[in-house]
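Fig. S4 source data, part A: sequence.
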Amino acid sequence: MRERWILRRLRNWLCSFKILMKNPEQIKKLAWERFDEAEILADNEKYDGAFYLLGYSIELMLKAKICEHLAVPNLFDEKFPKIEGLADVRKAAKTHDIATLFILSGLRLKFDDAKGNNQVLMKTNALLFDSSGKCTWSEQKRYQLSDTLDRDKNTKLTLKLILLLPDKEGLLKWIEKS
């Protein structure tokens, strides 16, 4: 198992030099790569890292959708030809906040409607957002270790998200096709 993870990680690292988020399709590909890495980590009982990468895969998928929504093929390359106002949009899109990215992608209201008819999205929403609407994932998760009390909760959360996100009705695929 460990050898598989090392080889996969090396391959992804080498590929990352080719995939520099040049367009929405490459960003989506990177999102799926991060999801695959999360699965590998979870298979090796590294749930904190897996949870972080699951959230990051959602973040990337939403950023790809922002590019599509705004009809800007390369939102993240600052060498991209200058378009008036693009720098402000680029700055806003650099957030890691999933709720904000849903809004910027134009999917927030669609998501609210869709989860009423889609049990997978409803379950995913319940796992990702607390009752106040705050996302349970943040980029700060990469700096945190679960304490003993949270470990079981995080393990269950991670394993549920690994099943839900790639489902044909799951959030990652829903974002792609919306």
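Fig. S4 source data, part B ends here. The mean pLDDT is 85.
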